[in-house]
Specification:
316 residues; alpha/beta; UDP-N-acetylmuramoyl-L-alanine:D-glutamate ligase; nine-stranded mixed sheet; 13 strands; 35% helix; globular; Ribo/fructo_kinase
Length: 316
């Protein structure tokens, strides 16, 4: 699998710090449990997708404002050490960076509590005009549309789409909190809609969708709908054609960031002009690979993904 190096990706959604708490079981309300480990990771959908794209040797740029606080310093250090471009990252010295408490139990399930900081802010000046012309693909998370900058963000998405970029929209678990008109505009602008099962159900309720999925995506002019079902695999639609992809058989120890890694794998496939079923398989392999690491963004390469796909085929 080889990629045209001139194809650049913009990843929009804000940078935060994940503060992990590891415990044997999630406590019931009012109860107490022992913490077996705790640590920090630079996380959030944006950095998870960027890290996975870096693993696949794709030139990806996170878009975010970060604060001048301790969490902001952690992010800046991470970007430097991970060799991730800071071209579209702006530091606001007097503001706070967001963070997420991640409670990980022994079933590999994780529960989140998020504090929003200045990462929700967006300004056109974050993206250099010359770089904007080189962007071939944009990943947008719904988290970025929860704040007061949503209209500016979607105005930018409209402009960059007109320059020829493809748009992937991942609505996120708080999709039902996005303003109705903002959500509809995001769907109108996206080429690829990539929710998980719970998120698509929330979208159906919020938008009062009563027709079948194929008719709905056709009406909204969405080229591809990809529904992530975790360990149950993937259900996807291209026009009126439905695809079912089983999950890869790996020993999962942490599912954090798996959906983001899946999205990155799909972006890799789209940029390589692969057939849709192959795109879904690469995305699934990337998502599965990421569950074999503790933390939201593990290290792996294209050869690791190729090996996992071959093993899955051989064992079928």
């Amino acid at each position: 699998m080889k990629l045209d190096k001139d194809k650049k990706v913009l990843v929009m959604g804000g940078l935060i710090v994940d503060k992990y708490i590891v415990t044997e079981q999630y406590p019931s309300r009012g109860e107490d449990v022992l913490i077996t480990n705790s640590f920090n990771r630079v996380g959030g959908c944006t950095i998870n997708v960027v890290s996975a794209l870096n693993n696949l040797e794709i030139d990806a740029y996170p878009v975010s404002t970060v604060g001048g606080d301790e969490n902001g310093n952690i992010i800046e250090k991470y970007l430097l050490e991970a060799n991730i471009g800071k071209n579209c990252v702006m530091v606001e010295k007097d503001k706070n960076t967001g963070y997420c408490l991640v409670i990980l139990d022994d079933t590999s399930e994780r529960t989140f509590m998020t504090y929003k900081g200045c990462e929700e802010e967006f300004y056109y000046k974050l993206i250099n005009c010359d770089l904007m012309k080189e962007i071939k693909f944009v990943y947008l998370t719904g988290y970025y549309l929860l704040g007061s900058f949503a209209a500016e963000i979607l105005s930018f998405i409209k402009d960059i789409k007109e320059l020829g970029a493809s748009i992937m929209f991942d609505p996120g678990p708080l999709v039902d909190k996005i303003q109705l008109e903002i959500l509809q505009l995001a769907l109108d602008l996206c080429d690829i809609f990539i929710p998980n099962f719970n998120e698509i159900e929330k979208v159906k309720i919020k938008l009062n969708i009563v027709e079948g999925v194929s008719k709905w995506i056709e009406k909204n002019k969405i080229q591809y709908l990809i529904i992530k079902n975790g360990s149950k695999g993937v259900t996807a639609y291209k026009g009126n054609k439905k695809y079912e992809i089983s999950a890869y058989n790996v020993k999962a120890i942490d599912t954090t960031g798996a959906g983001d890694s899946f999205a990155a794998g799909c972006i890799y496939g789209f940029l390589n002009d692969m057939e849709f079923e192959e795109i879904l398989n690469i995305g699934s392999a990337c998502g599965a690979m990421n569950t074999t690491f503790i933390g939201p963004n593990g290290k792996y390469g294209v050869k690791d993904i190729e090996k996992l796909i071959k093993e899955e085929i051989d064992n079928a």
